[in-house]
């Protein structure tokens, strides 16, 4: 069953169009990766779902289980944000409010929807513990600066999933973390998504991240989708020259060490 | 290297700032308990003891009516500082409310508010105070109203700028993405992250407002002559400065020392808050 259906989405800033007619769908409970180099429009496409950027004008269709979001009223959008679609930001350092405790921020999505403080607190602590934060009940009243980067990103994930959204948009959730912590956070995100039957749209420029995480992969370039395929097929038999180039640019241990990686210029030359 | 120097600087308050902090504390304490520690009645006229120089009985001398200058300074601290506090409280509240409205209320609201503040900034407070003095009658109340009216636009501008900056933060965007409503967004996310600048600005403004209030009292539209307000005391003593300089100089020193101390503390807070300034020092 399709949860998120994007049809012919165009996004422009003033006169400049940056996303040129994107089609994309995410099935309920599925994990889809949206891959592309920076400036490819992947982030803009994903954020169009929640319409956070007032400067962006959208055309086409974004529907969530049949509810049209392009041109939706502010009140409709508010009821989607946080409760049906969660968003994990790239940088856990700047996406947390520095003057509020992390507990306050984790409880907030529940509290603004009328859940009692006591219940919200219990659920928050349980979730934080599930996300691997040790001593969750004690650390619940700490401030963001008292946490390390990896722990902070767990807090950000807790905030995004506590209201049990059907879809989680993760915008480069591990880019700001070091490699070891990246793997932990991704595994955790994967586990939580499976446990809760939550669909994930993962935005990343890192193909290495995609392989173990996603069911489907969508490759974007210059504001257009160049290839959509199940993850195994994409890695085994990429169709579009750009995708082939991208895969060639990933360093691998099983390749002849003497062979050079494909450069961006070479990809550009092949893909046109 | 540079980080360790910076940390050490933050731990140790520079000597000048430490003295300024002590003076500020002292002045505030005097404002509270001044009337009780005054050695003489600040309003008792004693014509047999007029214009006595500083001595063991009257440490800072007596004025033209034989009133003890030290007692009057101690008592007057309350009037001057209370008037300053009222002005700052009023202007900060107006600044936060109106400045936030301008920052988040959309382009039309912003334009209207900013044009009004431009007008407010263009009118000098002394001129405004003269107008209020005529309309309401001279008195410390008129001075407070006049300075408040001319002081609020600065705070509106400051708060507007800071709030707009905070609105751009990622945590604000993230709160919007969670479905947080507008009112909660502003009250719980934007304002708590914007208002710390007020500590600095208010401390710096204590000196400036105090000078204007005393200045208004001096030219006769603020506190009136018999009352023990520092500016009014100077005004009363100005006529016979040759026969009793102490009645003029000591309240003047009180104003100067307090103003300098508060602006030093304000500067110190500003440097604390802004690490880039710290490196320059």
Write a concise keyword list for the protein shown above.
heterodimer, A: 272 residues, alpha/beta, Rossmann fold, six-stranded mixed β-sheet, 36% helix, globular, B: 281 residues, mainly alpha, MetI-like fold, 12 helices, elongated, disordered N terminus, transport (chain A), ATP binding (chain A), ATP-binding (chain A), cell membrane (chain A)
Write the layout of secondary structure elements.
The complex is a heterodimer of chains A (272) and B (281).
Chain A: E1 2-13, E2 16-27, E3 31-35, H1 42-47, E4 56-64, E5 67-68, H2 74-80, E6 85-88, H3 102-111, H4 117-130, H5 136-139, H6 149-161, E7 167-171, H7 179-196, E8 199-204, H8 207-211, E9 216-221, E10 224-230, H9 231-236, H10 241-248, H11 264-271
Parallel strand pairs in A: 3-8, 3-9, 6-7, 7-8
Antiparallel strand pairs in A: 1-2, 1-4, 4-5, 9-10
Chain B: H1 2-11, H2 15-37, H3 69-104, H4 107-122, H5 125-136, H6 140-167, H7 170-177, H8 182-190, H9 197-218, H10 230-237, H11 246-273, H12 275-280
Keywords (chain B): Cell membrane, Membrane, Transmembrane, Transmembrane helix, Transport
Transmembrane segments (chain B): 20-38, 81-104, 116-134, 140-159, 197-225, 245-269
GO biological process, one term (chain B): transmembrane transport
Average pLDDT reading of chain A: 89
Structural class of chain A: alpha/beta
Shape of chain B: elongated
Low-confidence stretches of chain B: 1-9
Order of helices and strands of chain A: EEEHEEHEHHHHEHEHEEHHH
How many DSSP E strands of chain B? 0
The coarse silhouette of chain A is: globular
Helix content of chain B: over 70%
CATH class of the largest domain in chain A: Alpha Beta
Number of helices of chain A: 11
Whole-Å distance between the termini of chain B?
Answer: 16 Å
Gyration radius of chain A (Cα, Å) is 19 Å
Number of strands of chain A: 10
């Amino acid at each position: 069953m399709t949860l998120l259906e994007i049809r012919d989405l165009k996004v422009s800033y003033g006169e400049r169009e940056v996303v040129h007619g994107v089609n994309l769908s995410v099935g309920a409970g599925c994990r889809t990766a949206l891959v592309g180099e920076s400036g490819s429009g992947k982030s803009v496409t994903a954020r169009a779902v929640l319409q956070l950027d007032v400067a962006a004008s959208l055309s086409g269709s974004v529907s969530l289980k049949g509810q049209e979001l392009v041109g939706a009223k502010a009140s409709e959008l508010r009821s989607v944000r946080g409760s049906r679609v969660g968003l994990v930001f790239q940088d856990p350092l700047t996406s947390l409010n520095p003057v509020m405790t992390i507990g306050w921020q984790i409880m907030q999505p529940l509290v603004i929807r009328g859940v009692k403080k006591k219940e919200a607190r219990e659920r928050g602590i349980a979730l934080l513990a599930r996300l691997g934060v040790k001593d969750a009940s004690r650390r619940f009243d700490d401030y963001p600066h008292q946490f390390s980067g990896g722990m902070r990103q767990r807090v950000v994930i807790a905030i995004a999933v506590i209201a049990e959204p059907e879809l989680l948009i993760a915008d480069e959730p591990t880019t700001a973390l070091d490699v070891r912590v990246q793997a932990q956070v991704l595994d955790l995100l994967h586990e939580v998504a499976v446990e809760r039957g939550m669909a994930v749209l993962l935005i990343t420029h890192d193909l290495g991240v995609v392989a173990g995480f996603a069911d489907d992969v969508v490759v974007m370039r210059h504001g257009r989708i160049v290839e959509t395929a199940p993850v195994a097929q994409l890695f085994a038999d990429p169709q579009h020259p750009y995708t082939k180039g991208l895969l060639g640019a990933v360093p691998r241990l099983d390749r002849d060490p003497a062979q050079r990686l494909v450069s961006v210029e070479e990809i550009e030359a092949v893909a046109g | 290297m540079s980080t360790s120097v910076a940390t050490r600087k933050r731990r140790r308050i520079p000597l000048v700032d430490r003295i300024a902090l002590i003076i500020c504390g002292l002045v505030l304490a005097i404002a509270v308990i001044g009337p009780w520690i005054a050695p003489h009645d600040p309003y008792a006229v004693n014509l047999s003891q007029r214009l006595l120089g500083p001595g063991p009985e009257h440490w800072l001398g007596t004025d033209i009516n034989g009133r003890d200058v030290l007692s009057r300074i101690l008592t007057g601290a309350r009037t001057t500082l209370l008037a300053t506090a009222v002005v700052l409280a009023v202007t900060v509240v107006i600044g936060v409310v109106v400045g936030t409205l301008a920052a988040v209320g959309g382009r039309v609201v912003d334009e209207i508010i900013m044009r009004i503040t431009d007008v407010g900034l263009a009118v000098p407070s002394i001129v405004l105070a003269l107008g209020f003095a005529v309309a309401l009658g001279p008195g410390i109340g008129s001075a407070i109203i006049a300075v408040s009216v001319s002081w609020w636009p600065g705070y509106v501008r400051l708060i507007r700028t800071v709030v707009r900056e905070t609105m751009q933060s990622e945590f604000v965007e993230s709160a919007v993405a969670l479905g947080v409503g507008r009112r909660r967004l502003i009250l719980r996310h934007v304002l708590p992250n914007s208002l710390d600048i007020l500590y600095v600005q208010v401390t710096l403004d204590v000196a400036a407002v105090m000078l204007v209030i005393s200045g208004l009292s001096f030219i006769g539209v603020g506190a009136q002559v018999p009352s023990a307000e520092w500016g009014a005391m100077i005004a009363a003593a100005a006529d016979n400065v040759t026969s009793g300089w102490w009645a003029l100089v000591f309240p003047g020193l009180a104003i100067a020392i307090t103003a300098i101390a508060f602006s030093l503390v304000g500067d110190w807070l500003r440097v604390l808050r802004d690490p880039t300034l710290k490196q320059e020092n």
